[in-house]
Amino acid sequence: MPSTRSALVLAALGVSLTACQSSAPPPVAAVAAAPAAVIADLTPGAGCGPIIARTQSIVAGDVRTGDLSEAVGTRFGADLGKAADACAAGREAEALRLHAAAKARYGYR
């Protein structure tokens, strides 16, 4: 059987814990809104142009937000530039191959 002293200690502990409870809702942490993706400058139409332009826009956004270092962004951009050049020259298959290789090299899906 618990002693009176133990019961008093447990009662005091229970009272002290109930004093910590609040009826106010927990505070909500402020979250910064993600920057809007740049979509307006993408090449319209079908084919390799819009695909490469979209990836270039994503990479630029990742560099801007610090998710990708500037040095890696520059190298990735150069690889995407080669794909864009092939696309502009009408070599769509080569452009898409270069685009896929660049994305794989830098861990983009």
Question: How does this structure look, described?
Answer:
- With 109 residues, the protein is mainly α.
- It has a domain at 47-109.
- 61% of the residues lie in helices and 0% in strands.
- It has helices at 4-18, 48-65, 70-88, 92-105.
- Helix 2 (48-65) packs antiparallel against helix 3 (70-88), helix 2 packs parallel to helix 4 and helix 3 packs antiparallel against helix 4 (92-105).
Q: Total strand count, please? A: 0
Radius of gyration: 29 Å
Q: Major sheet: size, sense and barrel closure?
A: none
Mean of the pLDDT scores? 79
**Roughly how many Å apart are the termini?**
66 Å
Write the layout of secondary structure elements.
Blueprint: H1 4-18, H2 48-65, H3 70-88, H4 92-105
Key traits:
109 residues; mainly alpha
Question: What's the short version?
Answer:
This protein is 61% helix and 0% strand. The chain has 109 residues and is mainly alpha-helical.
